[in-house]
Known about the structure:
By secondary structure, the chain is an all-beta fold.
Amino acid sequence: MISNTFASSDNIHSFDITCKRGDTFSAAFTFTGKDYSGYSFRCEVRDIITRRLILEYTPILSGTNIITLNKSASQLAVPAGTYNYDIAVIDPDGIVDTDIVKGKFIISDDVSNNTANVLLDENGEPILVTVPINL
């Protein structure tokens, strides 16, 4: 499990995550001096260039200040790559308050569970890349 503690502040915290494709993933973020009772959260992992959604999390609040992200191995069977993510706070009235954590979300290939890393377009179709060869 990935774990990190942030001091209470109004700043967006920066934290990069690295995990393996096709492995179970869990991360916990503790916010000292902060009470998130009654709040909900949203987390998205997006392609840096196309902004295409790669993963979506519904963070779980434990107690009043620990936010946890979880994915099963099958849910993390997405293309390896370096993406951006953020965790947003939604106040009890349903208004997105602010992003509280953001950073790179790096998914590396798992050698023992190595399957083709196919690039997909926005419709989920494989992208075929042709490279001209000049002889």
